[in-house]
Every structure is written in structure tokens, then in C-alpha cells.
Amino acid sequence: MNNAWGNGTLGQSIPVPVVHSDQFGWARNQWADQPVVWPKSPPRVAPLTVTTHVLLGLFLIVGLAGVILYLIEYLEASAVDSNRQLVLGAIVGDLAIALIAATLARFNFAVGFARVLFLFFAVTAVLGLACGVLVIVRDHDRAFEFETIPQLANLPLLIAGAVFVVLAIVVWRSLITQVSSFAHWRGNVFTALNTVFPHGRRERVFASEPVMIDENSGELERRLAVAERLTAPLLEQLLRMPGVTIVQGIEVPGSRTTHVGHAVVAGNQIAFIDSLLWAPGEYVLDAWGRVVRDGKIDEHINVTTALAAKRLTEDRPQLISRSWAVVHRLADAPLTIATAPQNSVHVVSPEDLLREVGEWLAPVGEQVDAFALQFAINSRLK
Known about the structure:
45% of the residues lie in helices and 18% in strands. By secondary structure, it is an alpha/beta fold. The chain has two domains: 21-39 and 203-378, no CATH class; 50-193, no CATH class. The strands form three sheets. The protein has a six-stranded mixed beta sheet, sandwiched between helices. A hairpin with a 4-residue loop joins β6 (281-285) and β7 (290-293).
């Protein structure tokens, strides 16, 4: 429904509902002082799978052993054997670069720079292996000569080098995938927490941009403004549950005129609530969503809360939502409401609203789901 947040005074003939939450079972629960917030602030270092941990550990051990081995050979190499020194120095440098890249990525530090380092390692290592293969292909006798290190001949050394490069690539892909995914998740968590706790403080009510009511406003806008103001203090009684947050004025995607008056959020549950101001009478919301007043279909009244809620949450399966439309009396005279069981929106009196919404939210009344609340806050009228 369209909602207006005006500053006008309530008409004196409109009865103000007097409902106290103490009469309901959910309100008599012993609520904690502080809610449980999910998700918590994530650590900087990404958690890894057991397989990635094992492969990374193997890679680091083999790489570090290679650096030590080749460095010793480099230091002991004769100065006159400049070609061997050059090869040994290049291998030490390449292995060191690979280890540095993996370490930086593991601790989620300068990941972009780490990517460049590993790419350099992979390219130079593959080119070095290719050159070694070409040398052996051109001169088969050199395959089993000990030209680089005394522990391994050229061919076994090339095979060991190829295995290490494959291991490095496997480790890197697994590591960078998990680290990048965690970094994205971590960024989303901090964005949600900053939205939910602006300036580090907990806000219990988030208002939208007000729609001003003036002398040019129509009857519908005026009624909705009054109905919204009547509903607000009712919903504030739900705040005794520490996880509850109220968001005012929810914009509906794809509509310039339809809005939902309030969203009450606890855990991953969102109660969408519209406010109506109707003249006395007997009302029924039938299975087709039509309002029947005193036995006749009233074409001038629409309850679109359920449709609006569906549009809002249809691409967010992690959210659980229900819809209510609370009806306030325009005059101090009897007004009865009934809703067909098949209807997805509950049209209720102020007392039933506070009872039903409270009972529905109570199981998660001590929980704050930062993502669910972020969604509601970001859906406010702008």
C-alpha cells in the first residue's frame, strides 16, 4: 500500500488503539539484554579446507627445501662456472618468488601483487623447463649428466621440477579461489554490519524519507498517513525483543506508487505490515484478495501487501517473510475483519497484529541477521 509519513495531527474523531503487549505470551518471555548478531566480524585470514592445507604445507616444505639446496650449490659454485651459477641463481629466485606469492595470498595481504609474482614464477618456470627439455632432445647424452646439482641428473631434475610446478599451480588455484571467496564474503559482512550498526551503534528504528502531507494531498494519502502514525507505537512494543528492528517505508521494486508501511525484522524473518484506515463495517478479504464490505465487493479498496512482499523477497530464498495489513477504525463504531484462509496476507485488528507478529517473531526474537536487516534498510523509500 502507499504510505505517507506526515506531520499533521490526528483527527479527534479517530480512535487511537490502546493495546498493551503485556497481555501476550511472547511478551512475558525472559529476553536477553543483548541480541546474538550473525555473522560475527570475520577474521582477516581465510579458513582453508584440509586438502588445501595439506597441499600448501607440502608445497612450502618442498619449495623451502629447494631454495636451501640450490642456494648452497650456488654459494659453493666456482666463480669461473658462471653459466651454472646463473642457472642456480635463477632457480633460487624463482622458488623464492613462488613461496612469497603463496605466503602473501595465504594471509590475504597484497593479493594483487601476489598474483603478479606467481604469474612471473609460472611463466619463467615453464620456460626454464622447456629450455631444459630442448637441451636434452638435442643432446641425449646430457640427460643423465649432473650439470646443475650433484644429487640429481638433468632428466630426473627436470621431471622433479615439472612435478613441483604442477603442484604449485594446483595449490595456487585452490588457495586463491578460497582466499578470494572469503575476501568477498568478508567485505559483504563488513558492509552489512556497517549498515546495521551505523557509526558502531545499534539502531532499533530506521526511518525512510518522509512523504509530506499538505492541503493538496488526497483523501487516500491522508488516511494512510494517519494509519501509519497509529501503527508505529504498536510496533514499538515489539522492541522488547532484543533482536527486533523496525524499518519504516519499504519501496517495492517495479512500482512508483506502491509501498509497504513497515518491516519488522528479527533473525532472517521479516514481517511486512501495511496500515489501513477504514470506515466502520464488516470486512472480509476473500481468496482472490478482494475486499468485501458489508456483503459487497468494494472496488475502491485494495490490499496489495502480499504482492509487494513477494516482489521484495522473490530472489532472496534465505529470507522468511509474512504479510499483515492492520486496519484502524475511522470512527468509534464496530468494525469486524475476516480473512479467507487461502489468502497470503492477514488483515487484522491492532490487537491481533501485535499478538500475531509477536508470536511469529518470538522464536528468533534474540537474533540479528545482518544480511536480512541490511536488505530491509536498503529497501527504504528514497
